[in-house]
Amino acid sequence: MSRIKSVLFAGLSLASVGLLSMRAATAGWALNLPPPVSPVGSNIASLHNAILIICVVIFAGVFAVMFYSIFAHRKSRGAQPAQFSHNTAVEFVWSAIPAIILVGMAIPSTATLIDMENTEQADMSVKITGYQWLWEYEYLDHDVSYYSRLATPSAQINNQETKNPHYLLEVDEPLVLPVDKKIRFMVTAADVIHAWWMPELGVKKDAIPGYVNETWALIEKEGTYRGQCAELCGKDHGFMPIVVKAVSQEAFDAWIASKQSAARQDVESGGPDPVRVELATSIAAAGRG
Amino acid sequence: MAIATTHDEHHHDHPTGIMRWITTTNHKDIGTLYLVFSLIMFMVGGAMIMVVRAELFQPGLQLVNPHLFNQMTTVHALVMVFGAVMPGMVGFANWLIPMMIGAPDMALPRLNNWSFWILPFAATLLMLSFLTVGGAPAAGWTMYAPLSIQGGMGMDMTIFAVHMLGISSVLGAINIIVTIFNMRAPGMNLTKMPLFVWTWLVTAFLLIAVIPVFAGAVTMLLMDRHFGTAFFDPAGGGDPVLFQHIFWFFGHPEVYIMVLPSFGIISAIIPTFARKPLFGYTSMVLAVAAIGFLSFIVWAHHMFTVGMPLVGELYFMYATMLIAVPTGVKIFNWLATMWRGSMTFETPMLFAIGVVTLFTMGGLTGIMTSITPADFQYHDTYFVVAHFHYTLFAGSVMGMMGGVYYWLPKWTGHMYNETLGKWHFWLTAIFFNITFFPQHFLGLAGMPRRIPDYALQFTEFNQVSSIGSFGLGLSQLLLVYIVWKTVKGGKKAGNEVWDNPEGLEWTIPSPPPYHTFETPPLVK
Ligand SMILES: [Cu+2]
Ligand SMILES: [Cu+2]
Fold first, then answer.
1. Is B414 noted as a catalytic residue in this protein?
2. Which of helix, strand or coil describes residue B262?
3. Of chain B residues 216-255, which have a CB less than 8 A from chain A?
4. What is the pLDDT of residue B16?
5. Is the dihedral of CA A25, A27, A29, A31 positive or negative?
6. How many helices (H) and strands (E) does chain B have?
7. Catalytic residue among B67, B275, B422, B449
8. Residue ranges per structural domain of chain A
9. pLDDT at A1 > cutoff 70
């Protein structure tokens, strides 16, 4: 038995040394939530970190006791078994302590949740529609809308080309949003359920046909943020990323104006929107069958 | 006595060979059938997830296309839940409940035969769906509408398979309840029943309550697919979220259906190897009952992102957090049972300690996921995949493995190979953690579940996880080998097998005669 253990422990420590050295060499070993850039994201992250620490402490405490017992109360050390089988006071205490800790967790969670669900007094609204397998964004206050779909070439997915740094997390047209504005998202879907998830903003909302779910974000920092559809929506569920480009208000105004004039030109030239035509066929093909 | 003798002779002409197994009404035979079926399904479901983990070994699509990938994850879950864990637990119930309560057999032996023999047909139907146009179901084991309305005949076959599996489970549950209420030996009061029997009693009530609900949900799905109804189709006035509410009203109790009997198993193992009575029997029973009750009123914690009203989210958060209290009581009671005992660490005890430790980790991540705002980040990511494998694999499956080592000498009359058993435990526990621990990190870093391909920053932990899973899968061949060797032969096991274990099953020979307790024992 001791031989088994030593072999296993040797293997395990080798593996962990290997892991640690690899960790220094690459950037792919993220351990925790990405750094949040919205108030809700920050609240969630601090809640998450606090609960995580509480859970780790509880785990360490409880199992320190267990491993002490395993070490000290073993027959091979000549331990004689006690015969007690209950103790009402102790049992009461260890029901009460977890209950108190839970109440302590529930209070900040409730406050964060109330804040998350308050979509009132938004500065602007964006309607997000999930399709198999792309997103549509409609700026309800600006009369601008477009589709956003995966930009990674299929040659990369099929391993015929080297992969871009943002492999599978890149789109043809990102969702452009101004910073420091409360943006209301109205999330729905046209076919099956999807979920619009942007980890840095602390936003995840199911896009459900027949429902318009509301959520919101206030982006505190300019930058490009990447997320993915989070609800299984069929074969290309893994291939409908979300990219948010957060820019200054001025840059946003300029961008939206250029979008609006492009849309006007489309209407004047009278040609059908090629994206819409293609989308209609792809939806038809994905239907029952 | 004369009556008993003729009775015996009457039973000795039972069929042999294959007909013995097809026609058997004996709880031990049926228990064996269930356990063998469970082991086969465990290997089948495991093989499927090996395909998934191989595909996820590196970014890009290598082995399977996304549609087949989705079929693999979906059927893996269905096979593990309905083929491996649930029948496995019923196998334990069949073998053990009559022996533990001093009954000659289950109360409804013919029903027992039928409830087993439905299973192979249901499993075959599910597997045949791979051969249909459009393949096996690919909408996840949760079969959320409207995605599950799409897809081919494989989904219909799955719905019928689920119906059959459900009938089997409900019949089994009825049998267990009737047996426990009517067949106990004189003196075996409810308050003297081993905890395993108690956990199964609660589990059986959960099954009867929720399996029909699930059957209803998939039947509505079938109607939507083929008969023009619109239960879940908003275009016809239906509601896709309704499906999720019905599904999880079944689905949450289901997780306790799978784990409670495992709690019963380790509550039998720990006292034996600590040489000390189970701590807090009464609070254990109350905790099981409380968990059973709470499991009915927390279902929507699986649906925090569907857009429930704030009060709904708050209610389901508070109710879910409450489950931590009875669960904590159970864990503390197990530790108190070990405390100041005289412990030895044979394979069953190693598995029991593994369950207590790793299930607690799953329980703690369960508290994390119950915190609604945080769950908005965890939901549908690998964090959740890690969480429920800590409860389901480490909680249920490792509990069953511990139970197999604990009672195998009783069932077969032979001791298993202790060295190999310990190897099996350590390989399973270590590879399990290598597989699933990194998945916490993947989920937090932003990797959604159920995707066949992923962004480059998820590569490293996916590789670790895949390597772990191959090791975990291969280690289970050792289990098959050990069980097979033990059935074939080995050191003879005495009546008690272990050092003074508690329970009626240890008062009869190993292996037990075909019929036991035909004259009920007297329990003091
Ligand atoms: Cu999706
Ligand atoms: Cu649940």
1. no
2. helix
3. 234-235, 238-241
4. 84
5. positive
6. 18, 0
7. B449
8. 33-74+86-116, 124-288
9. no
CA dihedral of residues B226, B232, B238, B241 (deg, nearest 10)? 180
Distance CA B226, CA B222 (A): 6
CA distance A66 to A58: 12
pLDDT at B35 over 60: yes
DSSP labels for A156-215? HHTTSSPPPTTTTS-BSS-EEEETTSEEEEEEEESSS-EEEEEGGGTEEEEE-BT--EEE
Largest CA distance in chain B: 77
Using DSSP's 3-state secondary structure scheme, residue A125 falls into: strand
Which phi and psi angles does B15 have, rounded to 5°? -60, 160
Return the residue in A3, A66, A133, A164 with the most chain B beta carbons within 10 A, the one to mutate for interface testing: A66
Q: Checking phi first, is residue A270 left (phi over 0); if not, alpha (psi -120 to 50) or beta?
A: left
Distance CA B128, CA B317 (A): 40
What are the Cα distances from residue B217, in Å, to A102, B121, B213, B243, B249? 34, 21, 6, 7, 10
Separation of alpha carbons B342 and B204, rounded Å: 34
Alpha-carbon span B375 to B395, nearest angstrom: 22
Cα–Cα dist B383/A123, whole Å: 34
Find the residue in B nearest to A18 (Cα).
B464
pLDDT higher than threshold 50 for residue B153: yes
**Is B422 an 8 Å CB contact of chain A?**
yes
**What residue ranges define each of the domains in chain B, with the CATH number in brackets?**
30-507 (1.20.210.10)
At residue A268, the pLDDT reads 73
**Mean pLDDT for the stretch of residues B482-497:** 95
* ipTM score: 0.91
Closest alpha carbon to B447 in A216, A241, A162: A241
- Residue B474's contacts (CB-CB under 8 Å, 6 or more residues apart) are none
Helix pair B86-101, B240-274: axis angle to 10 deg: 40
Q: Would you call B428 a catalytic residue per the annotation?
A: no
Determine the pLDDT at residue B9. 44
Structural fold of domain A124-288: Immunoglobulin-like (2.60.40)
Closest CA to B143 of B129, B128, B124: B129
Tens of pLDDT, residue by residue over B497-506, are 999 999 999 9
Report the predicted TM-score, pTM, of the whole model to 2 decimal places: 0.92
> Of the bound ligands, which one is closest to the alpha carbon of residue B70?
1
Spell out the alpha helix ranges (H) of chain A. Answer: 2-25, 39-72, 88-116, 154-157, 249-269, 274-286
Q: With 80 as the cut, is the pLDDT of residue B183 above it?
A: yes
Three-class SS of residue A129?
strand
Identify which of A12, A15, A98 has the shortest CB distance to residue B324.
A98
DSSP SS3 for A138: strand
Residues 6 or more apart in contact with residue A275 via CB below 8 angstroms? A146, A147
What type of residue is B320?
A: T
Find the CB nearest A202 among B313, B344, B376. Answer: B376
Q: Rounded to an integer, what distance in angstroms lies between the CA atom of residue A205 and that of residue A193? A: 10
